Amino acid sequence: MLQKPKGTYDIYGDRALIQLYFRKLVEALMDKYNAKYIETPIFEASELFHRGVGETTDIVSKETYDFKDRGDRNLTLRPEGTAGVVRSFIENKLYAENLPLKLWYMGPMFRYERPQAGRYREFYQFGVEAFGSDDPMMDADMIGVVVNLFNILGLKGVSVNINTLGDRESRESYRKALLEYFKPYLGDLCEDCQRRYEKNPLRILDCKIDSGKEIMKNAPKMIDYLNEESKRHFDKVQEYLKAMGIDFKVNSNIVRGLDYYTHTVFEVQADIEGFGAQNTLAAGGRYDHLVEFVGGPSVPGVGFAVGLERLFLALEAEGIDIRKCVYPDVYIFNADEKQKPYVLALANHLRLAGFNVEIDYKTRNFKSNFKRADKVRAKYIIIIGEEEVQNKFLTIKNNVTKDEYKVELDNLIEFLDEKLGDDDED
Ligand code: HAM
After folding, report:
1. What pLDDT, in 10s, does the model give residues 203-212?
2. Smallest Cα–Cα separation from 105: which of 183, 39, 24, 173?
3. 415: alpha, beta or left, given left = phi > 0 and alpha = psi -120 to 50?
4. Is the CB of 102 within 6 Å of ligand 1?
5. What is d(CA 420, CA 32) in angstroms, rounded to the nearest whole number?
6. Cα–Cα distance between 126 and 105 in angstroms, integer?
7. What confidence score (pLDDT) does residue 198 get?
């Protein structure tokens, strides 16, 4: 039998519900930030990622899905969302709009990594890219989106880690310091790092092979090479985060696995016991030269992406079920065939009034209907028999407490509003 490719998974059943609910929640949250939705192609010209994400990064040098199409074009399945959004921002001249412009996306990304818990070859990201402001206020606001999202979901065991990579000038003095520091140890570094030393020594700090070595621990720290402007930017980000009541740690080890960052970088980690190695739920930072680098005007940007699989694992680890809201509010069934039109009309009426409604399409017996109502996790059950139709009242059962109510048809919406409102407050 044919099977799904290694490192991929199907989205169905409970997981599909979680994904759909998450999307709804994100849509509502993005409206609050005046962020606009964007979709870009799943594949792009390979050159975009080589240029944008960086030739010497692991993502580009080892993990991309590259292919040639039948027209001999070099294409790559997107390993991340930022480069494509930047390409689209330039190509569609979105910079001519009223900046700053915040764009959000949610979709699959592809990296040829070794699959393990929380690490896939096809995985989903929700991300935001904010263009047109170099103010540290935007950095703080973007970190705030992630923190708010996790708070709304009720996730508790997370920590926000921030660092700065400084501006170009600071990066250059840091680069020189790294070259000088690593020079005598070149032989101790892995082959990749020896190449990185020539091309992009900052990447050495991100090496998975060399990361545990003593020489890494004593390597120069970016924070000691910041110029005044970079220091000021980072101080402001921290001041704004404090003003928003966001707890964070400055962690000088965060260099990020992509080349485009300047100034602020951040990662949000799950601190849940036994969670596993893949504990970075969200990550991002500022990229003030990327738009220009990809061929556009000089427009600064800052953004982040949340990994959906890891986030859902973290929610599961904390026993949080975000599907609660997407079960039917009401399950309606009829005693015999004759009441079918009534059931359909009532279901329509309730759906238009904003309730989630499931009905019995088959006229099952009572026992099977109660079973099905449980299976679909309906909150209330309405049973329609001859008497209910004649006398315009309804028999409603709370499917959890099993309490039963007789309600006039005219009072039904009010009744459900009140009851479901109460339930939500639990
Ligand atoms: P990234 O750190 O490469 O950044 O990925 C962001 C998040 O995607 C990670 O923190 C993780 O949750 C998830 N992720 C990455 N790789 C995998 C994988 N193989 N399996 C499952 N989840 C994964 C970026 O992609 C940047 N584009 C973020 C950004 C946006 N920076 C600025 N704007």
Report:
1. 888 887 877 7
2. 39
3. alpha
4. no
5. 25
6. 6
7. 87
**Ligand 1: does its nearest atom lie under 6 Å from the Cβ of 113?**
yes
The fold of 330-425 is Rossmann fold (3.40.50)
3-class state of residue 410 by DSSP: helix
pLDDT under 70: residue ranges of the chain: 324-326, 422-426
Distance 309 CA to ligand 1 centre (A): 11
Nearest residue (by CA) to ligand 1, atom 13, is 307
d(CA 317, CA 156): 11
Ligand 1 neighbourhood includes 82 CB (under 6 angstroms): yes
Q: What is the pLDDT of residues 209-224, one digit of tens each?
A: 877 788 888 899 999 9
For a pLDDT cut of 90, what percent of the chain falls above it? 75
Residue 200 in tokens: 């992009």
Q: Helices 13-32 and 308-317, interaxial angle, to 10°? A: 110
* 111 CA closest ligand 1 atom index: 19
* Residue-level pLDDT at 277: 85
pTM: 0.82
Where exactly are the structural domains of the chain? Answer: 13-167+227-317, 330-425
In this structure, the residue with its CA closest to atom 23 of ligand 1 is: 307
For residue 426, report the distance from its CA to the centre of ligand 1, in Å.
34
Q: Cα(324) to centroid of ligand 1, in Å?
A: 27
pLDDT of amino acid 154: 84
Query: For position 423, what pLDDT does the model report?
Result: 57
CA of 229 to the centre of ligand 1 (A): 28
Residue 255 is predicted with a pLDDT of 84
Q: How far is the CA of 283 from the centre of ligand 1 (A)?
A: 6
Expressed in angstroms and rounded, the spacing between residue 174 Cα and the centre of ligand 1 is: 25
At residue 253, the pLDDT reads: 82
Amino acid (1-letter code) at residue 382: I
Q: Is the beta carbon of 253 within 6 A of some atom in ligand 1?
A: no
Which superfamily is assigned to 13-167+227-317 in CATH?
Bira Bifunctional Protein; Domain 2 (3.30.930.10)
> Is 119 in a helix, a strand, or coil?
strand
Burial degree of 166 (CB within 10 A; 0-12, 13-18, 19+): buried
Q: Is the CB of 285 under 6 A from ligand 1?
A: yes
User: 176 CA to middle of ligand 1, Å?
Assistant: 28
Pocket test for ligand 1, best of 89, 109, 122, 308 (most atoms within 8 A of CB): 109
Q: Which atom of ligand 1 is nearest to the CA of 120?
A: 20
